[in-house]
Amino acid sequence: MSDNLELVALARSFERARAELDRFFPQGLFGDPGWSLLLDLYIAHHEGRAVNTSGVCSGANVPQTTGLRWLDRLEAAGLIRRHRHEQDTRFVMVEMSDMGLRRMTAFLDDTRERIARGQANPMAAAASAAARREPV
Fold first, then answer.
1. Average pLDDT over residues 3-12
2. Does the structural domain 3-126 have CATH classification 3.30.830.10?
3. Relative to the CA of 78, which of 34, 69, 123, 133 has its CA 20 to 30 Å away?
4. What is the DSSP string of 108-136?
């Protein structure tokens, strides 16, 4: 599997692991909207999907008002950028910035390496096992 495909699979497994928490605990108890938004944008980037603000909020399972606040924070940190849709300026498109992509790729790559060495935190190991459909 190519590097990018492995990292996207790991990002998806983090998304699934996050969603699984809502099955066992009160919904939103372990929410981290910024992380959920970054994961969704990272995956969308590698799938070649353009996403608008409501699409990324929906894809990350984040309420719209919360998502907009977090998009402001992520943009201020230089991790994402927003711009008007070229044909329909009513829509604001969201994408990862170059710095955001580099940082997410570095994080996922480091996590993948730590999982391979058996040094990852339990959530990352569980996410990786879920991606491979293995018992934890």
1. 90
2. no
3. 123
4. HHHHHHHHHTT-S-HHHHHHHHHHHT---
